[in-house]
Design a protein that fits this description.
The chain is of the alpha/beta class. The protein folds into 3 domains: 36 residues; 196 residues, P-loop containing nucleotide triphosphate hydrolases (Rossmann fold, 3-Layer(aba) Sandwich); 83 residues, 3-Layer(aba) Sandwich (Rossmann fold), CATH 3.40.50. It is 38% helix and 20% strand. It contains 12 helices and 13 strands. The chain has a 9-stranded mixed β-sheet with strand order 3-4-2-5-1-6-7-8-13, sandwiched between helices. Strands 10-9-11-12 form a 4-stranded parallel β-sheet, with helices on both faces.
């Protein structure tokens, strides 16, 4: 065998051995966190949209879709978020007011959800989800948790594991040896369904069938793309997987000439927008809704937001699985 190949595997094995103790420590800390938690049982019906891997997998678009389905069924719903990287995020609950708060205050994803529904869906940020639920339950019948499968401060009535169909679960090891927040078996014990995002992955889905949970998939349907079809553009994104956004544009006949990636939850500066405008050289600049809500008004005339709708396979079965019994109770 080639010596370079042998050296490559030796390095991989050595790195794995070095990281193994840290993975054990991470696992022990997560178990202790669960053991010493006293979860609050909310008066509202709680559904967690979570994941078992690190990084973005498309949870927030699914949260938005579930909220839309509940509103169509005349169910009062609110969203509970940590408010990741929001400067006001703490153990004290805050109901977002889009007239008073900004993405910097409450986190870009939480703000985006609230803005998506023009402030008509209450969104609460709180690091302690139990404390947040105590506030939200006074306003709604259903609480959708955006992330929080590994948060034990609030009891969940239903939980979904969201997995990116391209990245799947990587090497299957717990962080830092791999991308997992917890083992897939541990996650499955808390979950009621899998949702595969980004792309269909039949081979991976066959493996998931062994866990005897329903499996659903999602398909992204972008809006407002017709005017950019067959046109040259540049695109930028500060999301977990920006390449998914660029691929979506290309799949819809848009000629993406240049891209600019930013870190997930990036806090944009004037210098960023000056650079993007210069990079575009007069071409349209496209970005995601999550990024657009963080753009100051003076730069929005140069940038177009691409909003998306999410389609869920077997939507009725998915909705009935989560809310069938609840609807019967509410409508009885």
């Amino acid at each position: 065998m080639n010596s370079n190949i042998l050296n490559y595997f030796d390095k991989k094995i050595s790195l794995g051995i070095l990281l193994f103790p840290f993975a054990i420590i991470y696992w022990i800390l997560s178990k202790l966190n669960k053991f010493f938690s006293f979860p609050y049982k909310s008066k509202a019906f709680v559904v967690c949209v979570g994941n078992i891997t690190l990084g973005g997998v498309g949870k927030t678009p699914l949260v938005i879709k579930i909220v839309e389905l509940l509103r169509k069924n005349k169910i009062k719903v609110g969203v509970l978020s940590r408010g990741y990287k929001g400067k006001l995020s703490s153990l004290n609950p805050i109901i977002i007011d889009i007239k008073q708060h900004s993405p910097i205050d409450v986190g870009d994803e939480a703000f985006m959800i609230n803005a998506k529904f023009n402030g008509k869906v209450p969104v609460c940020i709180c690091k302690n989800r139990g404390n947040g639920a105590k506030v939200l339950e006074k306003l709604v019948d259903v609480i959708i948790m955006d992330d929080g499968l590994q948060n034990y401060s609030l009891k969940k009535d239903k939980a979904i594991i969201v997995i990116d169909g391209k990245k799947t679960i990587g090497n299957g090891f717990i962080f830092p040896m791999g991308p997992l927040r917890e083992s897939i078996k541990s996650g499955v014990k808390k979950a009621d369904a899998f949702v595969i995002t980004n792309t269909k992955n039949l081979k991976f889905e066959k493996r998931l069938h062994n866990f005897n949970l329903p499996i659903f998939s999602t398909k992204v349907k972008p809006s407002c793309l017709d005017k950019f079809k067959n046109k040259k553009v540049i695109a930028f994104a500060g999301i977990g997987n920006p390449f998914k956004f660029y691929d979506m544009l290309r799949d819809n006949g848009i000629k993406v000439l240049k891209t600019q990636n930013f870190q997930d939850h990036h806090k944009y500066t004037d210098a960023d927008f000056v650079k993007l405008i210069k990079l575009s050289n007069g071409l349209p600049i496209l970005t995601t809704q999550k990024d657009f809500v963080k753009i100051p008004m003076e730069y929005r005339k140069y940038i177009s937001m691409i909003d998306i709708d999410l389609e869920i396979s077997d939507e009725k079965k998915f909705f009935d699985l989560l809310f069938g019994k609840l609807l019967k109770t509410i409508h009885s």
